[in-house]
Design goal:
alpha+beta
Amino acid sequence: MEHAQDLLKQKDALENEIRELELDLRSHGVTKTEALVDSEGFPRSDVDIGTIREIRRSLVYKQNDLKELMRQIEHSLAVLHKDASQDKGDMDFKVETPTLQRPFARVGKVALNSPASDAGLAVGDMIVTYGSVNEHNHDNLRQLVTETAENVLKPIEVLVNRVINGQPQTKTLVLTPRRDWGGDGVLGCYIVPL
């Protein structure tokens, strides 16, 4: 029970940090997705682009951390309910665990300051889902290309497997393809099939 309460306190603190970052962005006169270049493709002179990019990057990381924390809270609550129902003698209660999907692609390269970099994608990330695309329907990555093309300037949820400090972890990232980042393509990364 204490673990679940600690997680809820962490969630509240993280939500406050996210709100502060969003307010900080608004104080600079921009939104999370507003272009930082003018209509001619030059950097805007009315905003501090470096500061805004750093705030946006921090915001994405905090939002990803919040999603992971919500998963932990969900698991903790499921365990609490399971324990409570077993204490009452209700043995029919089952905790559903999601079926693990295998990755279908790997991130081979990520350009600096690209949409992929801003979302937190890293070289070596193993992509499990990319929007609605997964190991069963990616069609040798053709569906990934379609999903990207249909979602330019729209967020795509990307589930990746990553090894951090020798421990495998699953991360949910939010990637928004866009053309105005100053490099080739709308992602700024190479994705190769497994």
